[in-house]
Every structure is written in C-alpha cells, then in structure tokens.
Specification:
By secondary structure, the protein is α+β, with helices and mostly antiparallel strands. The chain has nine helices and 21 strands. The strands form seven sheets. Strands 4, 5, 6, 9, 10 and 11 form a six-stranded antiparallel sheet that branches.
C-alpha cells in the first residue's frame, strides 16, 4: 500500500508527507497540497537472542502502549520513554529521548522503504547516524525513507538506568530506594510528565501542544561558563556530554530571557506547567504559534548568544530559518 500510494502521488506530481500520530507537527494555516500518507501498519513480535530480546514493532504501533508492554514483560530499555505520544515509526527519526534515555541505545535495525530506489532496505544502528534528537532520517537525508518497522534490543530483567536527577528525586519522594523496578520507573516518569502537562489529557488546558518546542542546546564548556556567569539566581543546570560539551535546559534559558509559564500572546501561549511547551488556546492559528516561537528564540539569542532549534516538523511553509518558518 505504501508503494501504491507513492506511485499514485508521483503520477499526479503531488508532494508526499508521511504522517504518524501527528503529535510533533505544525501545519500552515493555508494547509498543504499533496498526499498525506498516514502509516498505520500494526504488529509486534518478540524474539529471544542470546541475552537479549528483540522487539520488532510496526511503524503504526502506538508508542506508549509498546513501552507499557515491554515493562510488563520486564524488558529493560524503554521505561524512561513512557508517556510520549505518537507512533513507533517516529522514534528513530528524531532519536526520541527523555529522562536520560533515548531510542538510539536500543534500536538495532530499522526497516524502511527507500523512496529513491523504491526498495525495502534494512538500516542498522550505525547507518541511522543517531545524534542528540537527530538522525539520518531527520537531517542526514530527510524525506528519503518511509519507516515501516523498528527493532529494539531489550534486556530481560535488566536494571533500569535511572540517570536523570528529577526522576531520581521523584523515586526517592515515593519511598523507592535501592534498585527500582521497571514498573516503578515507568510510574514515576508518567507522574513527572503529567505534572508538566506532557501526558496527553484533553481535560488539561495545556494539552494542545507539540511537547517541547525547542531542543536543549549543547554548547562548548567555555560558552556554558559564559552563560552561567550571567545568571543571578543560582547555579545553572548543566549536563556533561560524552564529547566534552555541555547540554543546557532550554526551559531555563527561556525563563531567564524574560518569559513566564502561562504567558499568553493572543491565542497562543506558554504552558502554565512547562516553559518549553507552546500551547494553542481556543482559536489559535499556526502563525500566532510561530510568531511566539520566533520571539522566544530571538530573545534567548540576544540574552545568551544561544540559538534555539525547533523540535517540531513544519508542513506547508516555503521559508525556513534554521528550521523555523518565517512569515
């Protein structure tokens, strides 16, 4: 069906957009002209291999349900990625990650349809060229591949890798000491995400968002020190990276640039629970959201010399400036 859809669009000279769950997309107010190909392929398969379990999941499988299944089977590797909306097929594209874990740690194979050759090929972990919130599919050769299936290598009975301070603190507050179970870690992740309106809930006034709108910037040690020297309210959160650079929370930069949680700019605004989420209130248009995003990025850059990069995918915009549409 994917082959047929691509051929149908080619015969009509139509642009093709690949749609998963739609949770990380901003669409122009003018809409798009072309074919939106919604990947709804379902199916999972577990296979034991040496000391690991290979989980093959079709691209249309709901992500959080898959994580819940892995945790219930006591398979380590995905537990900190609980509560993230969307489908399996999106996870390798952005190298989805949260709370100290990312899918690059467990993905062993991605089955894709190459839109150039029209052949189905398998890409291993190295070929996917995973980086922080990035991959071959996102920036290396975007739009070339349609993800059909992802294989994750999980550890049966493995110890959860709790590395994120906020998650550690939440587990301690719950009285979970020593080695937490995968289920306990999943529960804490869901509760922390819910406290930030990062679990989809239609009753939550912050629920219409793309999640984190900007990627946490990774800067040199000297740049990090320069940024911290301007702080007037205590130590800046920083997270050392393997390459010697430092990751800084974008939310911290946004708040120190003068924005507050709950700020409204017309029908768009900043989440009342997390300054990294831009919210569509009733009647919001994409233009309002993007004008707010640009205002935030410009002010952070002026204040700290850091240019924030957007996380969402933008459809129907002709001009992009470092990934952000320009009106």
């Amino acid at each position: 069906e994917v082959h047929q859809a691509l051929e149908w669009a080619e015969q009509r000279s139509l642009e093709v957009r690949i749609l998963g769950g739609g949770s990380n997309i901003v669409v122009s107010d003018a809409g798009i002209e072309g074919l939106a190909l919604h990947v709804a392929i379902r199916g999972t398969h577990f296979e034991t291999e040496a000391e690991a379990v290979l989980l093959r999941a079709a691209a249309g499988e709901p992500w959080d349900a898959l994580v819940a299944d892995a945790v219930e089977r006591n398979l380590q590797g995905l537990e900190c990625l609980s509560g993230i909306p969307g489908f399996v097929g999106a996870t390798p594209i952005q190298n989805v990650g949260a709370y100290g874990q990312e899918v690059a740690e467990t993905i062993s194979l991605v089955r894709v349809l190459d839109r150039r050759s029209r052949k189905i090929v398998h890409l291993n972990n190295d070929q996917c060229r995973f980086e922080y919130r990035n991959s071959l599919f996102k920036s290396g050769d975007p739009e070339r591949y349609v993800v059909l299936e992802v294989t994750y290598r999980l550890v049966p009975g493995g110890e959860p890798r709790v590395r994120y301070p906020e998650l550690m603190h939440h587990l301690t507050e719950r009285g979970v000491s020593g080695r937490p179970s995968l289920a306990e870690v999943r529960q804490s992740v869901l509760e922390v995400r819910r406290s930030k309106s990062m679990v989809f809930d239609v009753s939550d006034p912050n629920h219409r968002s793309c999640g984190s709108f900007f990627v946490n910037p990774v800067v040199s040690q000297s740049h990090c020190d320069a940024i911290e020297s301007t702080a007037t309210d205590g130590t800046m959160p920083r997270y050392a990276q393997a390459d010697g650079r430092v990751k800084i929370p974008a939310a911290w930069l946004i708040e120190r640039a003068g924005f507050k949680r709950g700020d409204r700019f017309g029908c768009a605004g900043i989440s009342s629970r997390h300054s990294l989420a831009l919210v569509c209130h009733q009647g919001a248009r994409a233009e309002e959201v993007l004008l707010l995003a640009r205002q935030i990025r410009d002010r952070v850059e002026q204040r700290f010399g850091v240019r924030l990069m957007p996380e969402p995918v933008f459809w129907g915009f002709s001009n992009l400036d470092d990934g952000l549409p320009v009106y």
